Amino acid sequence: MTPDDSDTIDREALAILNRVFGYASFRGLQHSIVAHVAAGGDALVLMPTGGGKSLCYQIPALIRDGVGVVVSPLIALMQDQVDALRELGVRAAFLNSSLGAREAATVERAVAAGELDLLYVAPERLLTPRCLELLDGAKIALFAIDEAHCVSQWGHDFRPEYLQLAVLHERWPRVPRVALTATADALTRREIVAKLALESAREFVSSFDRPNIRYRIVEKVDPKRQLLDFVAGSHAGQAGIVYCASRAKVDEIAQWLSAQGIPALPYHAGLDNATRSAHQARFLREDGLVMVATIAFGMGIDKPDVRFVAHLDMPRSVEGYYQETGRAGRDGEPAEAWMAYGLADVVQQRRLIDLSEADEAYKRVSSAKLDAMLGLAETIDCRRVRLLAYFGEASGPCGNCDNCLEPPEPWDATEPARKLLSCIYRVRQASGFGFGAQHIIAVLRGQASERVRQHGHDALSTFGIGADLSETEWRAVLRQLIAQGLVAVDHARHQVLVLTDASRALLRGERTLQMRRPKADVGRRAGRGARRARGDSAAAGAQAPAGGAADAAVEALFERLREWRRTTATARGVPPYVIFHDATLRGIAERRPASLEELAAVGGVGEKKLDAYGAELIGLIGSAGP
Ligand code: ADP
Ligand code: ZN
């Protein structure tokens, strides 16, 4: 490539970004990736969810001659992806098992005639002789292998067909290939390179930070009420996902939210296929629905305007937590990841590992992953620093997590912890067997319940030595002790608490216990939270909107624009975000463009959409009053 070529490519790439996609500038590594692939290079792209992977192959496909072939396992999404591209004026189509023979033949003819810019194909479809021959006869701009971590046999998204994709390189050695994934770890990366024969590909590793996501982890006190406060208080009318560990809980929470006036649907593997896809479709197409789900829901949900992800049960690992929370805020607008967790989560997770039939090595790995997750939940320092450090990235305090925004009070809990340990010890000594958390805490707090008296524990030296702390505080201390392995739970014997080798060091005064001072999340009330969650984007470093009146006018226009989008989307049979993203509507509401030219300057308004909706929008803004 000569410098001249690279200049031309740069100019063209930027022009397409502006004109077709309506964006002013590339984000992060996008520019280098586009330039590299457009010039014919292979690439491995690692970018977090919402980082902007699609443009990395879409723009090179538009620059290069021929059709860009996108391999993706997410058949359910192809229709929406193609709709979105067509809305932008890009000639796109897909081939997968959901098409009838007629429709497929139409697409094949378009490929053969060189009438497509982008073709989305399911891997099993691509590998059929028919499809390979079809592509033999076509000019191919590039191959994009999306969700490339599906080659990994160790991951939970493994797709055997992905292993055969190395055939692309053998068959079309001169066509550039770009593999993309949001899975960060080094092992997966090596597997992708090996299995897809990408040894000579350039690797582009982005920061995995998602600055627009605000992380919050609260102590579980009254989880339903806390969830309701969170959703109604900060995210009323917005789309979100609530993750629960079990199907029964999913059903219960979905019903309960609905009864509280928050539109919510359940999603889990126990529902029949038709119900599941109906719920998914509604979630994608309607504004402001809450999906209550097990982790069966999520892979490939690239709805850009999910404003919050809430966890009512703790994920088993930081990877899981990051993947699930990553589904919030793909459009770059402020979003929140919220989790309520408590003693029961810690006990339950430890239990799953202890009782699992897996071999020791697997248990060790699971246990280490859980420890990292617990560390994140318990930390009194910046959550984001912890998260990124887990993925090998160094960073400083973020200013957009609960610990940065409301620094927790550190607490030296060494004394209470020692009291708790001795109480566990004394009780066992007196009775010859152990007791569970509730009993131990009752003894500590000097509550002479019937059971306590029956066992004579009201006569122990530890009876009442912890009356100064509330039950919540004791549970927090115990949670911390279990999290750190200073107390174990005997799952085989009614969850009784037992001391560990590590307990002794604490009892002997050789180590201390530092933790956050427990406090219940009182929930943020409507109004304040709602404005905050939308108004201040730490990502953009934006200031909270000044002045209540101006703020209200923007808000009112934004709602009208959403209404307009809803109607337009329904009329066109596409999800609302295919028309415009929230970020674009917000930009319009804030700037109130009075001409097509001003409208075109808003991010996300490209040439085609300006043509299609410009006049209508200017009219709507004009009629909306100042
Ligand atoms: P990923 O596939 O990495 O999760 P997407 O390609 O879906 O991410 O992009 C996430 C969001 O960011 C989309 O809404 C997309 O339109 C937007 N986006 C991507 N690149 C840019 C850019 N350069 N400027 C503004 N918005 C962008
Ligand atoms: Zn922080």
Task: Please describe what this structure looks like.
With 626 residues, the protein is an alpha/beta fold. 48% of the residues lie in helices and 13% in strands. The protein is built from 28 helices and 17 strands. The strands form 4 sheets. Strands 3-4-2-5-6-1-7 form a 7-stranded parallel β-sheet, sandwiched between helices. Strands 8-13-12-9-11-10 form a 6-stranded parallel β-sheet, sandwiched between helices. α13 links the parallel β12 and β13 (335-341). α2 (30-38) packs parallel to α3 and α14 (343-355) runs parallel beside α21. The longest helix is centred in the C-terminal third of the chain and has 25 residues, at 548-572. It is globular. Bound molecules: adenosine-5'-diphosphate and zinc ion.
| Beta-strand percentage range | 5-15%
Number of strands: 17
Note the overall shape.
Answer: globular
- Give the helix tally: 28
Which structural category do the helix and sheet elements fall into?
Answer: alpha/beta
Q: Write down the Rg.
A: 27 Å
Major beta sheet summary: 7 strands, parallel
Unreliable parts? 520-546
Can you list the ligands bound to this structure? adenosine-5'-diphosphate, zinc ion
Lateral strand order in the biggest sheet: 3-4-2-5-6-1-7
Which whole number gives the mean pLDDT?
89
Helix share of residues? 40-55%
C-alpha end-to-end distance = 53 Å
